[in-house]
Amino acid sequence: MASIQTNTHANLQDIVLVDYEATCAAGTGLNAIRTAINTQTSGLRKNDIANSGLNTWIGRVGDIDGYSWPAEEAEWQSRNNALIDIGLSQGSFLNSLAQLKAQFGSARIGVVMGSSTSSIDRSEEAYHHLDEQGKLAPEFIQDKVLNPHSPGLFIAHRLGLDGPNMTINTACSSSAKVFATAARWLNAGVVDAVLVGGADTLCLSVLHGFDSLQLVSESPCRPFDTNRDGINLGEAAGFALLAKASAVTQHSDVRLSGYGESSDAHHMSHPHPKGAGARLAIEQALQQAGLAASDIGYINLHGTASRANDHIEGNLLKAMFCTNTLTSSAPLASSTKGWTGHTLGTAGILEAILAIEALKSGIVPGTLNLQEVDPEFGIAMSAQNQTAKLRHVMSNSFGFGGNNASLIFSHTTQKGLQ
Questions:
Q1: Which are the catalytic amino acids?
Q2: What single DSSP character describes residue 9?
Q3: I need a surface site. Which of 37, 244, 265, 284 has the fewest CB within 10 A?
């Protein structure tokens, strides 16, 4: 029996995104990512992780290679924290945060991070440097890094934030759920603003762990294609600042209009065969937003390119968004993992941001590498980008263990026409 956790009475009409930013294989910073989307340039590359040898493609952020830790920050060293620091430094994000800190004070800004691996890369490295007695070398004794809460702790340290702080670890839905937690904090008056985010990086444990599940493709991934044969793994960091519109003078003109969360606990790694938990999350997001399925103009699908995930998600979307056959009322839909790879616990916020970008620009990303849409699916898909005037967009994240989340974002005005 699937169960759902959510606040059905929360008023989300007033919760806006003040600013947002992302870094992934497709680009360091949103400006670079926008260029990659517009030119349909994938960030995937042949696997070049040291000591791996696994025949696959990955979404690696090359800028991490040149990152150097100052001596006074050595206790925070990890690949994951380096990516967080790089991601935070892009665009106007830190300036927007500084304005919120000046307005509200650091104790009234919460932090909710999502991650599935935290700094497991550093743990992996530590085990390669055990001393003769099998003990950790001194430089790897990092209680704030070898810790599932590492992303949240590092954000607080890096940005001087003293408010409530947590890290959500619910597999691939981790950084989608951060929006729901932030909304509850804001509606409860716990804080005046929330920094939400996600960060996950690649390492041997991630690559070979997924390969042991026979989920990894040797080719660039092909979500929803008839001949799809597995996923490509990626790394990314994404962040957003949320506040009530009545409390801030400037924001992105995008609001969080609905969220849904569920945990169907069907299987450790296989989704529920009928998408029961995923359906609950989508239904709750629509209910909370006060929208019908036909109001959604674009859906950024979880779309990992695994045989099972795409089959179940595709059929679920067909049942929920298409009454009989393809109609003009069916939303546009795509998976953006051909640009980024599957970024694990960061997939939720990264793909939410890509959906928001479509909402604001009217450029709807295609599904890269798509050649022949699996005929079982009732949602129209294209490899090519499309244009549309959108009012509401949805982003879905479905993780291991049946951890599901669905988010809806809308214009703050009647700007969109979809």
A1: 172, 302, 342
A2: T
A3: 265
